[in-house]
Amino acid sequence: MTMDGTFNPTRALLDLLDLSNGGGARTDEDVFVGTSLPEPRRRVFGGQVLAQSLVAAARTVEPGRLMHSMHGYFLRPGDTEQPITFGVQRLRDGRSFSARRTHAYQDGVPILSLIASFQAPGEGLDHQEQMPEGIPDPETLPTTAELLGGYDHPVAKAWAHRRPMDIRHVTSPLYVEPGVERSARNAVWMKTFDPMPDDQNLHRAALAYASDYTLLEPVLRRHGLAWTAPGMSVASLDHAMWWHRPLRVDEWLLYVQESPSASSARGLSTGRIFNREGELVATVAQEGMVRVPEDTRPAG
């Protein structure tokens, strides 16, 4: 909230990532505590706990070492009305790399388990996959608020007005109606609404936050499903991410996603994130649970 009581999405994101020290002497864990944004169903957004876990890990690494990879498992749903405790174990500190394990706890049990690696920047080989051509500029695309602002539903209102990221679909949005094409591909532009501090690890953690929003949409699009499909249950199971180059999450980033497979009530998606200059700044992979009642599954 701002001083006048209005909701500021970027300020809310920075507050979420400003973890408090858990206090007490450090044994084999450094302890931090975080809060959550309210959600209509009281369920902690997975990207939030990912980002907070990464911030906690980064607090224990010497300055100048940047997160370059993480692998995490979502173990239990989190409750937005309870604080989250983050325990960080210092696994290794080498000459160039540091490894950390973070567990996020509620009610004494882990809701997320994550290992992240940090690196002191160095020189080496350099190549990348090219950014897709023919993508419309984000300024020409409708905002989520424009797409959902007219719906009188708590989830629609939360997605339209209380998400910390400005997300604009290049492919047709799946909020209410299924996409026209049954393609296992999806693309969005995204950024924060306001500028962020010049802290590269903070920008990378914020990108992890945003990377969880639409990554399973290629699975839904391929099977003619929208987020409003009756009886559908979707949940992230795991999340992997690699950061390749410096980035700013307060500048437009293109998130190109595809799903190579879905089976056994699970869907796998991968994503590539480019800045407007065409640099590949990050790669993401996630498997999610996608359960749809048999009598509501689209044919084909």
TrEMBL record:
It comes from the Bacteria. InterPro entries: Acyl-CoA_hotdog (IPR042171), Acyl_CoA_thio (IPR003703), HotDog_dom_sf (IPR029069), TesB_ACOT8-like_N (IPR049449), TesB_C (IPR025652). GO terms for molecular function: fatty acyl-CoA hydrolase activity. One of its GO terms (biological process) is acyl-CoA metabolic process. Residues 179-289 form the Acyl-CoA thioesterase 2 C-terminal domain. Keywords: Hydrolase, Lipid metabolism. Residues 43-119 form the Acyl-CoA thioesterase-like N-terminal HotDog domain. CDD domains: Thioesterase_II_repeat1, Thioesterase_II_repeat2. It catalyses: a fatty acyl-CoA + H2O = a fatty acid + CoA + H(+). Homotetramer. Belongs to the C/M/P thioester hydrolase family. This is Acyl-CoA thioesterase 2. The gene is tesB.
